[in-house]
Amino acid sequence: MKKLLEMNHVKKSFDGNEVLKDISLSVEEGEVVSIIGPSGSGKSTLLRCATLLETMNSGDLIYLGEKAAEDVDGKTIYAKTNDLKKIQQYFGLVFQNFNLFPHYSVIKNITDAPIHVQKRNKEEVYDEAIKLLDKMGLTDRADYYPCQLSGGQQQRVSIARALAMNPKILFFDEPTSALDPELTGEILKVIKELAKEKMTMVIVTHEMNFAKDVSNRMIFMDQGVIVEETTPKQMFQSTNQRTKEFLGQYH
Ligand code: ADP
Ligand code: MG
């Protein structure tokens, strides 16, 4: 199996408050990894460090063997801007609150970065965007603006936008937390479909049944550390006290 992402001994503090305490993980091609854990345990910070939205204090960040950042004497040194730009194309991120550009139509939200950041052929990008919209069940919404769509539709647009960059890994940070239960299902269905197609994904979620269903591996985080990392089956049979207490809330 090819390793797509490696994070080694990652530490991150905010004003002296250590939020990530020596986190190491790796993700292989085709894997779906879910990250679960209580609010404030550092899940979003971990994804933000992995996706270069946040800098780490120390640790390594390696995509496909290319170092985005490496630990030099307990301090993170980031790669040069051009290398980081290349590495940024390896992943996509889907946020809890969709983060679409409100003043761009759906199609422009999807095509803007592939055309202007990746400098790809306009027509090819549009064709692909239309296919992605079809796949997301949004064929007739290309010219709508985000405010004219339901939350579920907006989230499907933001998944299409991430996929339009052809990422090797897709990260999701609580993709259904801002949605009503009836809209949550449609997003989980889309993610399950992507899993079937062997899209490599790292998903922070509170949807335990979904996580159990879709993941090859689950990571339980609490207070800035990885408490347990195992198969969904093992996770739900865990004898670890903290894991049991956390999962107990969802019964
Ligand atoms: P989770 O996603 O698991 O709920 P977060 O990664 O959002 O956890 O937050 C972990 C901790 O880091 C929390 O205590 C939060 O208040 C703190 N934190 C996160 N981002 C910042 C920030 N930009 N500045 C200061 N503290 C932050
Ligand atoms: Mg979070």
UniProtKB/TrEMBL annotation:
Q: How does it sit in the membrane?
A: Peripheral membrane protein
Matches recorded under Pfam families = ABC_tran
Q: Where would I find the ABC transporter domain in this sequence?
A: 5-248
Q: Which UniProt keywords apply?
A: Amino-acid transport, ATP-binding, Cell membrane, Membrane, Nucleotide-binding, Transport
Which coarse location class applies to the principal site listed for this UniProt protein?
A: membrane
Q: Where in the cell is it found?
A: Cell membrane
GO MF entry, a single one: ABC-type amino acid transporter activity
A cellular component annotation (GO) from this entry: plasma membrane
Signal peptide start and end residues: none
Top-level taxon: Bacteria
- Quote the InterPro entries the UniProt record gives: AAA+_ATPase, ABC_ATPase_HisP-typ, ABC_transporter-like_ATP-bd, ABC_transporter-like_CS, MetN_ABC_transporter-like, P-loop_NTPase
The UniProt entry, under PANTHER family, shows: AMINO ACID IMPORT ATP-BINDING PROTEIN, GLUTAMATE_ASPARTATE IMPORT ATP-BINDING PROTEIN GLTL
UniProt lists the family membership as follows: Belongs to the ABC transporter superfamily.
Q: Tell me what this protein is called.
A: Amino acid ABC transporter ATP-binding protein
